[in-house]
Amino acid sequence: MDILDNNSQGESLSRRKRFYYVALLVFQILVVFWPMMTVELIVQGRTSMNFDTMGMIENVLVLVLIIVNILFLKQFVGNKWVFLVICLIYAVSFIVSTVAHISPTIRADASLLRKMNLFSFFTIFWCLCYTFYVAVKDIFRYKHDLVYSLVGAANIFLLIGSIFGFIINIVGSVFPGMVVPVDQVMVLDTHSNTLAYYTLASIDLPFDNVNPFIRNILVIESIFSHLFVVMIIGRLLSK
Predict the structure, then answer these.
(1) What is the Cα 120 distance to its own chain's centre?
(2) For 161-183, how does the pLDDT look when each residue is reduced to its tens digit (9 = 90+)?
């Protein structure tokens, strides 16, 4: 009877993990590609939506992604204090980022906005690195069925783009004007994600004047992502 109960609990945990992997994948795609595609529609005049409305929708998607990410980590993190610290970091980062983007006073002060963005980018960057570590450990250390492994690998692949996107965000906050012009700090996040995900997809960058330092970061990302593809193929074939 105990063996059956243990098996049932194991299957239930596996189903929950699979569900959160899928949810994480869906909202990662929405958070990354929603602003990238919407910005182009607004610039081309093909939608009546403005940048403020786009930003509000993006914030809602980010909030949902953070909640899904926390629930995802809850399935893997055994230490409750570590889990609570991660929840606290995400909450503070989201609040700081939201206040920075909706407050007219802060938006008018480029220096303060940069500092608040840097804090938010840096803290979320480390949370994403931890999520990346948890997912890599789960997929590469333990045996799973093919669908579970593929969904997990897709999440890891997108996380590579997100992590490098935040690295570019951090660089752009520390060195104003390196990623976007100083007076366009509000689009730093979208611009950084565009650079990171175009590189991840091996597509030519849509911007002509990319700083050589940023290009070097993108080269590292490209190498890292190609190595991951090789490793995940090897992992799947070894099963």
Answers:
(1) 13
(2) 999 999 999 999 999 989 988 88
Three-state SS at 176: coil
Number of domains in the chain: 1
Domain of residue 136 covers 2-237
Closest CA to 233 of 136, 142, 160, 149: 149
d(CA 56, CA 91): 17
> Diameter of the chain by CA atoms?
67
Nearest to 72 by CA among 6, 146, 128, 7: 128
| Alpha-carbon 40 to chain mean position | 20
Alpha helix ranges (H) inside 103-144: 104-108, 110-141
Nearest to 133 by CA among 162, 151, 159: 159
Model-level pTM? Answer: 0.89
Alpha helix locations (H) across the chain? 2-43, 51-74, 80-102, 104-108, 110-141, 146-174, 188-200, 212-237
